[in-house]
Design goal:
Blueprint (H helix, E strand, L loop, with lengths): L8 H6 L2 E7 L6 H11 L9 H12 L4 H6 L1 H6 L4 H17 L2 E8 L11 H21 L5 E9 L5 H10 L5 E7 L11 H9 L5 E4 L5 H10 L4 E4 L7 E4 L2 E4 L1 H8 L4 E3 L1 H7 L10 H6 L4 E3 L4 H4 L3 H12 L3 H14 L4 H17 L3
Parallel strand pairs: 1-2, 2-3, 3-4, 5-6, 6-9, 9-10
Antiparallel strand pairs: 7-8
Bound molecules: inosine and zinc ion (ZN).
The site of inosine (NOS) has 19 residues, from helix 4, helix 5 and strand 2.
Catalytic activity: adenosine + H2O + H(+) = inosine + NH4(+); 2'-deoxyadenosine + H2O + H(+) = 2'-deoxyinosine + NH4(+)
Protein name: Adenosine deaminase
Keywords: Hydrolase, Metal-binding, Nucleotide metabolism, Zinc
Length: 362
């Protein structure tokens, strides 16, 4: 096969893939939301019909604004307030990712959103880790090998970032590989959480920041130059610092810095269309950023709200930008290089899982 072979959705599912940006509370199966609402006595769901609920999440998230998009999480978080519920959601998450051919994933969530019924932050983390391990074993029994690292998020609008950063470091030897801040971007600059980022850095731990999604370059600049973020959650607005003309593209100082330093962009095309960050997949900067050789990675953000998988995101890029196997392999290796696990473990997956599979296609 040559690079000219067009990857089909089925081939893309089989290809080993790496996912760096996926929210646990944005990836529940619709049927699980309904089961858990019933089991935990959550009465707020808009419908208890699986098909209708699935469509409801997509339609409600398809709002054109990050703030409205985020309102849908009231229901997923609403049904995730017990250890059993958290473990089930975590296990199913790993199984669903493994079934989509994901071989390494970093899955994130904000522990502070699951304490409404009295769970401690530590109990939340332990329940999720138990679930991830159960999911990994179930997938392995079906012949699907997957490794999962956890990222803990602090919510920008709350003031608990240092506490969550400490939780991250406390569980670093139990599968928590990094820290993030999430939630509404406008009005909540990342510099509000400098103490947390400093704590993570001085502990030799890792973090990414949601930046440059709903807000522009200033937020990316702060995340990198003031906070020291290693990766950018979305970062898609970096295009605002790139001008394209007849002579090709010209990078401003920030865009050049991001590219020169190989700062990974955790791009999430479908999510960006829903929040209004971009008009359509075809207009998404991922095509241009890939051509300019930024360190592009392709991610789901929220599989429930976008009704997507990693392979369906790649399929959309095949359709919109003519991505071929070389592009899929490049994004996959970019993502694996950018993961928060150790260098030797990243290399092992690149050399022994990713490269051998793609060798027959690229
Ligand atoms: O694209 C996003 N931008 C910012 N915040 C997000 C996005 N997707 C989800 N969350 C927020 O992150 C929390 C922890 O998982 C979710 O509860 C949601 O509020
Ligand atoms: Zn996100």
């Amino acid at each position: 096969m040559s690079t000219r072979t067009v990857p089909t959705p089925q081939d893309l599912r089989e290809a080993p893939k790496v996912l760096l940006h996926d929210h646990l509370d944005g990836g529940l199966r619709p049927s699980t939301v309904i089961d858990l609402a019933d089991e935990t006595g959550y009465g707020g769901l808009p419908t208890t019909d699986v098909g209708e609920l699935s469509r409801w999440f997509v339609a409600a998230a398809d709002s054109g604004s990050l703030e409205t998009y985020l309102e849908t999480f009231a229901h997923t978080c609403g049904v995730m307030q017990t250890e059993e519920a958290l473990a089930r959601v975590a296990a199913e998450c790993v199984e669903d990712l493994a079934d989509d051919g994901v071989v390494y994933a970093e899955v994130r969530y904000a522990p502070e959103l699951f304490v409404e019924r009295g769970l401690s932050l530590d109990a939340v983390v332990e329940a999720v880790q138990d679930g991830f391990e159960r999911g990994r074993k179930n997938a392995a029994e079906r012949g699907k090998q997957i490794r999962v690292g956890t990222l803990l998020c602090a919510m920008r609008q709350h003031a608990r970032a240092l506490e969550i950063a400490e939780l991250t470091v406390r569980y670093r030897d139990q599968g928590v590989v990094g820290f993030d801040i999430a939630g509404p971007e406008a009005g909540y600059p990342p510099t509000r959480n400098l103490d947390a980022f400093e704590y993570i850095r001085t502990s030799n731990a890792h973090f990414t920041i949601h930046a440059g999604e709903a807000f522009g370059l200033a937020s990316i600049w702060e995340a990198i130059q003031h906070c020291g973020a290693e990766r950018l959650g979305h970062g898609v607005r970096i295009v605002d610092d790139i001008t394209t003309g007849t002579d090709g593209a010209e990078l401003g100082r920030l865009a050049a810095y991001v590219r020169d330093r190989r700062i990974p962009l955790e791009l999430c095309p479908s999510s960006n269309v829903q929040t209004g960050a971009v008009g359509s997949i075809g207009e998404h900067p991922v095509g241009m950023l890939a051509k300019l050789r930024f360190r592009v990675t392709v991610n789901t953000d929220n599989r429930l709200m976008s009704d997507c998988t990693v392979s369906s995101e790649f399929a959309a890029l095949v359709d919109a930008f003519g991505f071929d196997w070389a592009d899929v392999r490049w994004c996959t290796i970019n993502a694996m290089k950018s993961a928060f696990i150790g260098f030797d473990e990243r290399l092992d997956i690149i050399d022994n899982v990713i490269k051998p599979w793609y060798a027959a296609r690229v």
